[in-house]
Amino acid sequence: MQTLKNILDAELDRLISIQHFQEPAVGVSSGFKYLDRAINGFRPQHLYLLSAAPESGKTAFLLNLLLRITVKKKNPAKALLYSLDISAAEVAQRFLSCNSAVTMEHIFYGTTQSEVIEKLYIDVDQIKDFSNNLFIEDYPSCSIQTIRAQLTELKAQNQLPSIVVIDNINRIAVADDPAPESDDYGVIPASLIEQLKKIAIDFNIPLLVSPETTPVDPEVETDRMPRLYVLRQKNFNLHLIDVVMFLVSPQYYQFPGEEEHQHHLSKLGNPMPPGFSEMHIRIPLNRCGPITTVYFTANMECQLVYEDGV
Question: What does pTM read for this prediction?
């Protein structure tokens, strides 16, 4: 129970932080100032959903987000990543790439260029004091009970992270509630979202989750715009989710006859660096702020993601 005065003071602090593009007064800053402005940071007890079409850069976006949260901001925070699609070694390889702007080809296959190896060592050394801020769990067969047990143990050790991220919740097993047999790609167990929301509430943390599904309706031919009702059809209980974010590239939702945007300029009219393309975060459900779109540019060769115009 709180007094009205305490609630009003917190709201005024939030408005001041937004005015000056500071980190959110409540919650964890994403490290992206326009995303923070849109969702007011990642708030405790809130459930966030990031949905995207396959091969659209979702994992790259999540890793850039985690790098900013745990390392590259004024007040780094601890985070826990459940990487249920790729191994911890692959996560580290992608972090090396985006932290040093070195292409994934050099990271995966190695290089004889000594200056590239030297750059990797120097850049890793610069963040070594903060690299302990990120925990990574890559066991592919994860369950709600496992997640709860690990968070309980971390809490007992006073190591509870400030935010938890789960990449591909479709791999999470729910006791007595298996995923329904369906030809519809990406359907999840009916109680999964409820169980995830309970974790966010019980441990008083923000929980950002990403499914292996596409929010695009195959029956709609006029465009490929992601839609909330498609998530509902796949058992996503939207009334329990605080923020839904769709990660999309412009070509995914271009209307027929619409002229393709010039590649050398972003949506906001800023020059596009060589090798970069647009990446948009559409927010159609937001209990923490406005319905809006946040614009990014991305270079998938180096796993780099930047806010447009920043």
Answer: 0.86
With cut-offs at 50, 70 and 90, classify the pLDDT of residue 256.
very low
Q: Report if residue 3 sits inside a domain.
A: no
Q: Give the pair of three-digit tokens for residue 189.
A: 């167990």
Q: Give the count of beta carbons closer than 10 Å to the beta carbon of residue 94.
A: 23
In this structure, of 3-7, 149-153, 159-163, the range with the lowest mean pLDDT score is 3-7
Owning domain of residue 54: 26-307
Confirm whether 1 is domain-assigned.
Answer: no
Rounded CA-CA distance 247/226 in Å is: 9
254 or 116: which leads in pLDDT: 116
DSSP-derived pairing of the beta strands 142-143 and 172-173: parallel
Q: Tell me the CATH number at 169.
A: 3.40.50.300
* Secondary structure (H, E, C), 280-300: EEEEEEECCCCCEEEEEEEEC
What is the tally of structural domains in the chain? 1
153 lies in some domain: yes
One DSSP character per residue, 171-186 reads: GEE-TT-PPPP-SSTT
For residues 258 and 143, give the distance between their C-alpha atoms in angstroms, rounded to a whole number.
Answer: 45
**H or E segment to which residue 68 belongs:** helix 58-70
Residue 73 backbone dihedrals phi, psi, to 5 degrees: -150, 170
pLDDT in tens, 271-280: 777 778 888 9
Nearest-10 Cα torsion for 32, 33, 37, 39: 10
Residue at 230 is within a domain: yes
**Average pLDDT in the 24-35 region?**
81
Q: What angle do CA 184, 187, 191 make, to 5 degrees?
A: 150
CB neighbours (10 Å) of residue 113?
A: 11
pLDDT digits (tens, 9 = 90+) for 224-247: 678 898 899 899 999 999 999 999
Paired residues of 51 in beta bridges: 246
Listed residue (42, 20, 19, 38) closest to 29, CA to CA: 42
- For residue 236, CA distances in Å to 48, 202, 210, 213 come to 12, 20, 12, 11
